Automatic annotation (TrEMBL):
Specifically dimethylates two adjacent adenosines (A1518 and A1519) in the loop of a conserved hairpin near the 3'-end of 16S rRNA in the 30S particle. May play a critical role in biogenesis of 30S subunits. It catalyses: adenosine(1518)/adenosine(1519) in 16S rRNA + 4 S-adenosyl-L-methionine = N(6)-dimethyladenosine(1518)/N(6)-dimethyladenosine(1519) in 16S rRNA + 4 S-adenosyl-L-homocysteine + 4 H(+). S-adenosyl-L-methionine binds at N16, L18, G43, E64, D89, N109. It is found in: Cytoplasm. This is Ribosomal RNA small subunit methyltransferase A. It comes from the Bacteria. It comes from Marinomonas aquimarina. The gene is rsmA. GO terms for molecular function: 16S rRNA (adenine(1518)-N(6)/adenine(1519)-N(6))-dimethyltransferase activity; RNA binding.
Amino acid sequence: MSKSHPHKARKRFGQNFLHDMGIIRRIVACIAPKEGQRIVEIGPGKGALTEGIISVTKRMDVVELDRDLIPILRVNLFRYPDLTVHEADAMKFDFESLANEGNIRVVGNLPYNISTPLIFHLLSFAEKIDDMHFMLQKEVVDRLAARPGDNLYGRLSVMAQYYCRVESLFIVGPESFDPPPKVDSAIVRMMPHKTLPFVANDLKMLEDMVRIGFQQRRKTLRNNYKGVLNDEDFAALGIDPSLRPERLDVEDFVNIANHVSKKD
């Protein structure tokens, strides 16, 4: 890969370029790309991971916001004419537009500063996505994969697991990046459910009920849902109102949202 195009990582884009070839190979092995698959990479940077994938798939879409990186990417990957570069903000990008031939797979080393809202944006296209593999701050991966009762279990855990099966794969240390971040990173696999295990009748209501539930996570459900659910409602739901929100699983939150929808 060409190294004749220096590019200083930009703080405003949250850039940390992965350069450890051993880690890159391990990520590509986890993704297991196949020729002809429609794989979309968010924030390809200089193309380190991109090359490992497109060398197998022969074609690829990448979404890059930093316009100064695009010519570097094109030079580094000049041998792959079927690389399509979308100069765009992934937070506003219509990923469904790339799913015209079937579902897409999404990968990326996501900027720490926008990783959570970006994941929520991607989940809105979950029906069109086969799987997602992301490099994220380790704490974000831990939150995504957390189970009921874990300290990090919260809004992100519930909403991600409503849509996907979430699996934390392995940790990546700061020394694998340039510049090295101040925290550990981790690789996560998110596989959207083909059929939702629990169906919310109103997604906005589910989002609202999860947000309200975790607004004051040290307080009981009775306190957090005051004015929304009374003791009769909790009894009908079979949920103990003296519990804290982190004790509820995804099904419980879906049941709460559906119950409140019916009341309204």
